[in-house]
Amino acid sequence: LYKAWVDRRTINKIPTIGESGILTSYKGAYDFLFNAREMIQEGYAKHRGSAFKVPGISKWTVIISGRQLVDELRKAPDDVISFTEAAADSVQTVYTMGPEVHLDQYHVDVVKSSLTRSLVERFPDVQDEIGAAFTEYLPPTEGWASVLALPTIMKIVSRSSNRLFVGLPLCRNADYRDLNIEFTIDVIKAAQLINLFPNILKPLVGRLLTNVESQIQRAMSHLRPIIEDRLDKEAEYGKDWTGKPNDALSWLLQLAEGKQRTVRDLTLRILSLNFAAIHTTSMAFTQILFDLAANPSFVPALRQEVETVIREEGFSKVSFHKMVKLDSFIKESQRLGGNGVVSMSRKVLKDFTFSDGTVVPAGNNIAVANFSMHHDEVNYSDPLSFDGFRFSKMRELQAEGFSKHQMVALTHEYLVFGHGKHACPGRFFAVNELKGLLAHVLVNYDVSFENNGPRPNDSRFGLMIAPDPKVSIMFRKRRD
Questions:
Q1: DSSP assignment of 8-72
Q2: pLDDT category of residue 21 using cuts at 50, 70 and 90
Q3: CA distance 234 to 249
Q4: Measured between alpha carbons, how far is 293 from 479 in angstroms, rounded to an integer?
C-alpha cells in the first residue's frame, strides 16, 4: 500500500491529459478509446519535448517527444523498460497466440537474420506471387471494377508473404490463406477486448474470448505434413540436406532446439510471422492505394521511374533500391497515416527517470507521440499536405550513399518503425513487399475512388489507426 501511495504521488507530478482522479481516470480511459489522437495532440501542443500522461484502464501511459527523450528511451536497458512486455500487453500475446510465443521469441531472430539475408535471392518469388494473386483477385478489366480494399489486399499479402514463409503450393491454398487472415483479425479484436478489462479480469476474459487452440489445430492440419517431411529429411541427411527450401520453416528449424522442434511449436511461429506480416503490411498498402487514388498527379512520374528501372534491371530487391520516388511515396503515405498514434511503446519494469527529472513508476507504459511528431511543422514543411515526392526531393540534396530519407532508415523524426535496437526487424521485407505491390499496380492498373471521391477517413480505436475495411476502391486495366 505504501509503494502504491508513493507511485501515485510520483505519477501525479506528470501533467495529465484527461481525467486524473482515482475514479475519474476511468472516465478518462474511456474517453481515450475514442479520442486518443486528439488527446495526444493536445498534450503534444502543451508539452512538446517533454512528458505528459494519458489514462488507461489498468495503467498510465506517459507520452514523450523530442530528440533528447526519444534517445533516452531508445538507449534504456531492457531490464528497466521492456519492448517485449509492452508488445505482449498490447496484443495480449499469452491469450491470443499462446504463452510459448510470449516466453520464447526465437522466431524474431529468424526475421532479423535469415529473412533479411535471403531477400535478394527470394524476392523474385515474392514478386511472382504478387502478380499471380493480383491476377486471381483483381483480373484486369477494361471497365472499372469495385472491390473492398482492405479485405482484398489482405488476401494478396497473405499469399505473397507465405510464398516466402512456406512456399508453393501451400501459400495458394484458400483455407490456409483464410486461416492466416482470420487469425490476424481475431488477434486484434481479442486484444482490444481484453484490454478493456482491468488486469485482475484479463486471465478470465482471455480464456473465454479467444479461440487460439482451434486456430492452432487448423494450421497444424496444413503444416504437419511439411514439417514432418523436413524433420525426416534432416534426420536422414543432416541439417544442410540437398534441396532444402530457403524459407521460414527452414530458418526456424536451423535455430530450433528441443520442444521448439515440435509440429505445434513451429506452427505457432508461422502463425506469429503471418500475424506480423499481414496486419501491418495490409493496412499500410491499403493506405498507399488510397493515397494513390486521391493523388493521381503523382502516377506518371512513378510509372516512368518504375518502368525505366524494370526495363534495365527487372524486378528485384536491388532494382527497388533505385526506385527513389516509389520509396518516397510509400514513406509519405506512412508519415501521414501509419498504423498508430504512438510508437516505441515500452513497459516500465523498474522506476525510470528521464534527464529532465520525470520519473515513471514501474507498471506503467512509455511511448513516443509519433503521429504528432510526423505532423509537426518543426519536423516537416507543410506537414498536413500529402507530398508523394517529399523524401525523394530531400535525397536529391544529399551526397551518394545510404540516405536517412529512405523508408527503412531510422531517425528521430520518422518513427513508423520505431528506433534503436528494437526497431521493427521485418522492415526490410515489409518495405520491399510494399514496393513490389505498388510497382505492380502502377504498371498494370488505374486506381480511383467511385465518382473520383475524396480520400476516406481512417478507422480509429484507442491508439490504432487503420483504413476502414468497408471502403471500396476501383481498379481497371491501365490506360495510357
A1: HHHHHTS-BSS--STTHHHHHHHHHHHHHHHHHHHHHHHHTTSEEEEE-SSSEEEEE-SHHHHHH
A2: confident
A3: 12
A4: 15
pLDDT in tens, 339-395: 899 999 999 999 999 999 999 999 999 999 999 999 999 999 999 999 999 999 998
Question: Among 329, 338, 336, 333, which Cα is nearest to 393's?
Answer: 329
SS3 content of the chain, % helix, strand, coil (to 5): 60, 10, 30
pLDDT tens sequence across 396-449: 887 665 678 999 999 999 999 999 999 999 999 999 999 999 999 999 999 999
Contact predicate 45/37, CB 8 Å:
no
Entry pTM? 0.94
**DSSP strand E in 239-398: where?**
343-348, 352-353, 359-360, 365-368
Instruction: Evaluate whether 295 touches 330 at the Cβ level (below 8 Å).
Output: no
Backbone angles phi, psi at 316, to 5 degrees: -165, 165
> How many angstroms separate the CA atoms of 101 and 95, rounded?
10
**Residues pairing with 368 in the sheet:** 64, 343
Q: Which residues pair with 367 in a beta bridge?
A: 63
Indicate the SS3 state at residue 460: strand
Separation CA 358–CA 72 (nearest Å): 12
Query: b/e for 174-198, b at 16 or more Cβ within 10 A?
Result: eebbebbbebbbbbbebbbebbebe
Grid look-up 523530442 returns 66
343, 367 Cβ separation under 8 angstroms: yes
**Dihedral class, residue 18 (left if φ above 0, else alpha if ψ from -120 to 50, else beta):** left
What is the CA 416 to chain-centroid distance, rounded?
9
Contact 223, 166 (CB under 8 A): yes
Give the Cα separation of 266 and 215 in Å (integer).
14
The number of angstroms, rounded, from the C-alpha of 146 to the middle of its chain's C-alpha atoms is: 26
Alpha helices, H only, 195-262: 202-209, 212-237, 248-255
Q: Is 311 helix (H, G, I), strand (E, B) or coil?
A: helix
In this structure, is the dihedral angle defined by the CA atoms of residues 442, 447, 452 and 454, taken in order, positive or negative? Answer: negative
- In three-state secondary structure terms, 449 is coil
